[in-house]
Design brief:
The protein has three domains: about 80 residues, no CATH class; about 110 residues, no CATH class; about 220 residues, no CATH class. The protein has 13 helices and 14 strands. Helix 1 crosses helix 3 and helix 2 packs across helix 3.
Length: about 450
């Protein structure tokens, strides 16, 4: 089923949408040194400010332990403005060479450190740590510091015009017409190669949400990566898990073993040239695995968003699942979270609807024919047997069919009518076995 078979969809008035575009750069040797100078300056400013804050807080803590009064004003602030002010006051002392790099280099270092402290306060991450010096890194630039020159060059302040491998004509046309503007740009070094990523705001005529005629439920797993089915139980999508990381494991192990025998970086010791070369091979393999994984997810999500009106998926507790040491590597390689993230914005772009099932909805345990819920279903049982109606069906197909039924009109908030969950589904949530429904266990997902 292709998009050409469908009638053109109506579009709404232009809406501002934020998009990200990345291009590979081809800098000269002098430009490489300048780019690495900017990346290093960002890391230095981040570490220097973090060190000042830690010293200040440690001193105040010791004063309090000694029984002295410490005022709130004695603590260094960690907001973006406070860190910027601290950098302006101490930059001449900390980094006399600060004027060699673009000013936005230090601005984004303050912003990133401020976000790190905010995440720590809210319990989303640990206390900020110092950034290690090594290969790679990134530097963010303000919109005024970056400009497109034609379709094959990017001009960066303090660096000059850098040639890029890919044409930027799509982005260039938006900027020329005035239908797009650059919000920020980030230059990153990955495995010795440089890339520039743009966050741009463009005016797009988003399609009007289509009526729920073509509905699909997607069950994710480890043996079969994606299984798609219609509400009637017809299997319309099967994507086998390519296991990108496991496939490259032998080559990666060999490259890592070679790198481990070289003189790597250490306290007061610079890495050897042979180590840099060996480590470059390791990074190249990791980059190939990541690119292959992203490409598969992009192809699948784009196809689904274009060709189906309603897409129903599960709300998986991926963070909790990664605590299982036996499956953590395989779950990370499957990238279920990235699959959902791409579906969320692509369904908006193409006029389809994304329905996310309740996290406690036991899709694998419900019989897709009669609706009976099994009391227990282990991960080893790859075939679903219904004791009530005698249905024998593949476990993943059964789960995908149940998810597709949630996309029918009137069964979920995502398709226009009804409440969040039907009463019978609320009963299923309450009676489901904890091995299937609990967010603390890994059997929530058909693996």
């Amino acid at each position: 089923m292709t998009r050409a078979e469908f009638e053109p969809t109506k579009t709404s008035s232009p809406t501002n949408v934020t998009q990200a575009l990345r291009y590979a750069l081809d800098p000269t040797p002098d430009q490489i040194n300048l780019l690495r100078s900017h990346i290093g300056a960002t890391r230095f400013a981040y570490n220097a400010l973090l060190g000042l804050v830690k010293v200040n807080w440690d001193e105040n803590r010791k004063k309090k332990e000694a029984g002295k009064d410490v005022a709130k004003q004695d603590y260094l602030g960690t907001s973006h403005f406070d860190l910027q002010k601290l950098w302006y006051e101490r930059r001449a002392e900390l980094a006399p060479w600060w004027g060699e790099n673009n000013s936005s280099t230090y601005n984004y270092a303050c912003l990133n450190l401020s976000k790190a402290f905010t995440n720590w306060r809210k319990g989303r991450s640990k206390f900020p740590t110092f950034k290690r010096r090594g290969s790679g890194g990134s530097v963010s630039l303000m919109p005024g510091a970056v400009k497109l020159v034609g379709t094959h060059h990017v001009r960066v302040s303090r660096i000059g015009e850098i040639k890029n491998y890919e044409s930027t004509r799509k982005m260039h046309r938006h900027l020329e017409r005035g239908t797009g503007r650059i919000l920020s740009a980030t230059v990153s070094e990955i495995n010795g190669k440089f890339f520039i990523s743009f966050a741009i705001e463009v005016a797009r005529c988003l399609p009007v949400t289509r009526s729920p005629e073509r509905i699909i439920g997607i069950d994710v797993g480890l043996s079969t990566l994606y299984t798609g089915a219609t509400p009637g139980g017809e299997q319309v999508l099967t994507v086998e898990n390519p296991r990108h990381l496991a496939t490259a494991a032998k080559e990666l192990t060999h490259a890592q073993r070679i790198a481990s025998r070289r003189q790597g970086p250490g306290p007061g010791r610079a890495p050897s040239k042979r180590w840099r070369k060996a480590n470059s091979r390791v990074q190249k393999i990791h980059a190939e695995v990541a690119n292959a994984r992203k490409n598969l997810i992009h192809e699948t999500t784009t196809n689904l968003a274009k060709n189906y009106d309603v897409i129903a998926i599960e709300d998986l507790n991926v963070t909790g699942m990664l605590k299982n040491r036996s499956l953590a590597k395989h779950i990370s390689d499957a990238a279920w979270g990235e699959f959902r993230r791409q579906l969320e914005y692509k369904t908006t772009w193409y006029g389809s609807t994304l329905v996310v099932a309740n996290r406690f909805y036991p899709s694998s345990k419900i019989c897709s024919r009669c609706g009976t819920v099994k009391a227990k279903l282990t991960l080893d049982e790859r075939v679903f047997h219904c004791e009530a109606c005698g249905l024998i069906i593949d476990r993943d197909l059964n789960a995908a069919t149940n998810l597709a039924k949630l996309g029918l009109p009137g069964t979920s908030s995502g398709t226009g009518r009804g409440g969040e969950v039907r009463p019978e589904h609320q009963i299923l949530d309450a009676t489901a076995h904890p091995d299937e429904a609990s967010t603390e266990t890994l059997t929530l997902v058909s693996a």
